[in-house]
User: Fold this.
Amino acid sequence: MIPTCRQWIGAASSVVALTGAGISAESGVPTFRGQGGLWKNFKPEDLATPEAFARDPRLVWEWYDWRRTLLAQVEPNSGHRALVQLEAAKPGFTLITQNVDGLHDRAGSRRPLKLHGDIWRLECRQCGRDWPDRRAPLPKLPPRCGCGAIARPGVVWFGEPLGEVWAEAEHAARTAEVFLIVGTSSLVYPAASLAPIAKAAGARLIEINPEGTPLSAHADASLRGLAGEVLPDLVNVSRRDESLDG
Ligand code: APR
Assistant:
């Protein structure tokens, strides 16, 4: 199937990739629902909702600080880097990610559309400010804004709207000729609606995941493998070469 998928990508001018936690798994970042996934050990309702934050901002921040500290010790992998190569090769390429880990940025992706925000940004809902903060661990929890209010992580929590980036992601899906779905369980909406939107608009769907998902039956190709192995192959860059270029 890989040669056929390569042909589809080669012939397309607008290619879109949607990534999930699976693309960062080979960097040592736990996924959410896979083996050892974050939601196996922690309850999203206790840690990733505005209600949880209102209830106990310190607890929520201890968890985000733990994730930031873990992320500060890992590197992007060959899957992230292959998408940077694809972006360089295809002017009409768009990267959409559900990940807040910042590994696409660190790999060199020019402008990932971050549907769920960025763990390396802080926000103040009192004065409206938001700013980058890469300190890990943070010196004091919970961190505060200059206006004195408790800051929150720059991520989208369950039950919150996605913001302006959604319209751009939806447009990219509607105009895609090839839509890659990489390392996501396709269970969380509205992100999981992008592939069906692309399919309905005539795109070829290529899924990359070691396991089947609710989307697999609708994909034109569902490639069972790891993103860090399949993506370089698909993008026709060798894992060795691209590490020299990376
Ligand atoms: N390469 C490709 N896919 C992988 C790899 C890998 N190396 N390792 C695991 N996967 C797959 C798993 O099989 C699973 O289908 O990645 C998927 C990860 O799914 P989830 O843990 O559910 O993560 P994701 O789909 O990104 O979650 C969506 O849910 O919890 C919220 O906001 C959070 O953005 C997140 C959203």
About this structure: The first strand starts at residue 14 and ends at 19.
